[in-house]
Amino acid sequence: MREPRPKALISWSSGKDSAFALHEVRRSGEFDVVGALTTVTETFERVSIHGVRQQILHAQLEAAGLPPRIVPIPYPCPNEIYEARMGEAVAKAVEDGITHIIFGDLFLADIRAYREQKLRGTGITPVFPLWARPTLPLAQAMIASGMEAFLATVDLKKLPAEFAGRKFDAQLLADLPEGVDPCGENGEFHTCVVAGSMFSQRLAVVTGERVERDGYGYCDLVME
User: Fold this and answer.
1) Where are the alpha helices (DSSP H) in 29-176?
2) Could you tell me if 205 and 222 are in contact, meaning their C-beta atoms sit under 8 angstroms apart?
3) pTM over 0.90
4) DSSP states of 130-167 as a string?
């Protein structure tokens, strides 16, 4: 008999990096991904940082066949509240026999070190399937795989507001200003995935109103 695969959660942001990390992990077959861990800002009922509506988040996870594990946080969120609520979610995962959490981080060493430090001794091991892959070829591989995504949020210090709502495609990569990472790993932009190999079907999502707030440009993505 085959040994059962270790149970894992995917740290799900609604964006391309977590979606492609799921794609890669499923392709390797190394883990049994049994759920998606997502922080949602209670005040707005949207995925934290990305600003994606909970309705779209739930549609994503249904299409991915992943039960949601929502971590609600306030806005603004003091770090101690964030860490306490994430700690509760990790403890619950351990109770449920989960041994790994998969992250879509690419190259920010301080973020990886933070995750490793917070999980040390909990019984959960972090996994980074996309780590240190050059980001232009990675972005091209995401697009070539059939993944479709919209830019949900842009940092107005790095990109003009009109980039919010654009498709993450080859034309976008060509149009990014010099110094902007092709995967937006420095926070230049955040995405919302609507189709790809990780989903059973394409989500009927369209671009809505654009707003600017707190130095960021947002495009409200809505289900048709």
Assistant:
1) 54-64, 79-95, 109-119, 135-144, 170-175
2) yes
3) yes
4) TTT--HHHHHHHHHHTT-EEEEEEEETTTS-GGGTT-B
Nearest to 121 by CA among 159, 157, 94: 94
How far apart CA 30 and CA 52 sit, in angstroms, is 29
Compute the distance between CA of residue 179 and CA of residue 169 in angstroms, rounded to an integer. 18
Interstrand relation of 148-155 and 216-223 (parallel, antiparallel or unpaired): antiparallel
Residues β-bridged to residue 218: 153, 211
Each of the 224 residues of the chain gets a pLDDT tens digit; together they read 677 999 999 999 999 999 999 999 999 999 999 999 999 999 889 999 899 999 999 999 999 999 999 999 999 999 999 999 999 999 999 999 999 999 999 999 999 999 999 999 999 999 999 999 999 999 999 999 999 999 999 999 999 999 999 999 999 999 999 999 999 999 999 999 999 999 999 999 999 999 999 999 999 999 99
Nearest to 54 by CA among 113, 22, 12, 86: 12
